[in-house]
Amino acid sequence: MRVAGFYVAGVDAGSTYTKAALVDDEGNLVATAILMTGVKIVEAARKVYAEVLRQTGVTEDRVKFLVGTGYGRYNITFGHLQVTEISCHAKGAHYLFPNTRTVLDMGGQDTKAIRINERGEVIDFCMNDKCAAGTGRFIEGAAKVLGLSLKEVGELSLKGKKPVKISSTCAVFAETETMEQLAWGNSVEDVLYGVHVSMATRSIGLLRRVGIVPELTFTGGVSQNVGMVKALEEQLNMKINTSPLTMYCGAIGAALFGLEKLRAAQEVKVKR
Amino acid sequence: MVITVGIDVGTRNTKIAVMEDGAKIIYKNVTRTTFDFAKTARGVYGSALKELGLREDDVKYVVATGFGRYRVDFRDINVTDITANSRGARLFYPNTRCVLDIGAGNSRAAKIDERGRVVKFRSTEKCAAGGGGFLEKIAYYTGFEISEIGKIALQSKNPVPISTVCSVFAESEVINLVTQEVPMEDILMGAHLSVIGRVVITLKQVGVEPEVTLTGGLVLNPAIPKALEEKLKMKPNASPELFYAGAVGAAVLGYRRLLKKREVQAA
User: Fold this and answer.
1) CB A173 to CB B133 under 8 A?
2) Which residues form the ATPase BadF/BadG/BcrA/BcrD type domain (chain A) (predicted)?
3) A contacts of B217 (beta carbons < 8 Å)
């Protein structure tokens, strides 16, 4: 790793996981870390931040700016600035896939559709504000009934042949709906395929409201679920961008906001 | 003596009632609903027969109700939750005009006429906000058992209603209230009032008329009748045996069906 003059960091305190990213003074991503959020949001934020520093051996005094984002961002009191996760996901997605024009961020209890311009700035967005229907919680409910991990439910859904029609939308009903579908004699694979298709349909509804312009980048924790990626691609009839880093988009975007802030401050200094 | 059986396969619990001549309850029992509804139902049915020393032939009619009713493969017929609970409520409280069945998944309000027939009904079916599922989540967020929260809530003096409708989103609101050091009993009573507030809307849609009888799993939670009384300004019937109203009502309907088919003579 190149030794940079200074670093910036972003911490994304999500409802389920807290993510951190470390970016150097030239805007290169150097490290990421992830941890369960739990009830102690500040503690989780401090721990993931410490983890990116540990991985890289960068000392805390060389991190010139730290930005908090995610639903718990106002609890990250050791940071310098808080930015909404919508702006951060947009910036992070644009960093990983520069041709991104639409972002779908699917997390533990939020799903957001974001339209961005060629500079990675938000033009429009739409999210589930009333309830947790159509978010990662629904898949979690199905996984819980089956005693499977989130990774496993995605993989199993790929083996489904015919998606079962899922009638419930409430995330709390995911458990009983899964139970009921299995009781009707449907295979686990087909039920899970159905769960992913129904989630994809709901998120496409959100995406349509902001307009789907390629390339579409899928971010947030659920972007790591292969079943969800497949269901989205099938229904949208287009390839979508994902990578193991897309779940860190919020944290990466936050760190990049920090870098912009520092650069702007320096320009002011130079002008003076 | 004619024996009929009612089995109510709910989202959380499966209830069974065995009756003589559609009037006398000779046995009732409950078990947790498992993922195999048919097996759960067969299980409670089997133990009921065994404990009563009956053979399957002794049972004239088996009526299934509840969300898993179609999976009860040994049933003679199935009836909706609304019909079954209305019948059951009327058996315990003959002057019932409104039945409010609050279960784990959702709740149903029904208006019945003086003969016990359902005139009008409404249900909260889109999400868990109007049922026990909401309170289960609140119990989980606050670290209590679902069986404890009602008792704690009854000690509340200044209930703080939960404004979030979504059971999942309510978590952050509850955590906020806890960090603001709002007394636990006030948070819990607030949660009960929020659920009841939504249930009362369905009741108002069918038209509130005394007597109101509460049935379903939440009748066992002492804060529920209290919250309902506060919202309705009227005391609902809420004795613990109403927990079995669905199963009992199903068994009554079985007996009535036999009468109609003239397979038995009225006792």
Assistant:
1) yes
2) 10-258
3) none
